[in-house]
Amino acid sequence: MHPLWGYIDVFTSTISYLLECYKEYLTKRIPEKRNELTEWYKEFKEPYNRIVSESVINDKNKASG
After folding, report:
1. What is the SS3 assignment for 5-52?
2. How many structural domains does the chain have?
3. Which of 8, 4, 19 has its CA nearest to residue 52?
4. Residue 43: what pLDDT?
5. Are the C-beta atoms of 14 and 32 separated by less than 8 Å?
6. 9 lies in which domain range?
7. Which range among 7-11, 39-43, 54-58, 59-63 shows the weakest confidence by mean pLDDT?
8. Residue 65 in 3-state DSSP?
9. 39 φψ region: left (φ > 0), alpha (ψ -120 to 50), beta (else)
């Protein structure tokens, strides 16, 4: 296992948590801005999820290989 894996895991968990908090904030606090800010959320979250999943797969392949 790569020595930075623990830090990467904490980072991705933190970003995921912040994104979920942001989603809740949009829904409950500022519904009039929800559509505008939801687009930003989607534009960030989709590539972020792809990068995280690719990183996890690559790290698992390196660890097993």
Report:
1. HHHHHHHHHHHHHHHHHHHHHHHHCCHHHHHHHHHHHHHHHHHHHHHH
2. 1
3. 8
4. 83
5. no
6. 5-64
7. 59-63
8. coil
9. alpha
CA–CA gap between residue 59 and residue 45 (Å, rounded):
21
CA 64, CA 44: separation in Å to the nearest integer? 30
Report the distance separating Cα 17 and Cα 15, nearest Å. 5
56, containing H or E segment: helix 34-64
Alpha-carbon distance of 31 to 57, in angstroms, equals 37
* 24 pLDDT above the threshold of 80: yes
Burial of 57 (0-12, 13-18, 19+ CB in 10 A): exposed
Any idea what the Cα angle at residue 12 is, between residues 61 and 16, rounded to 5°? 130
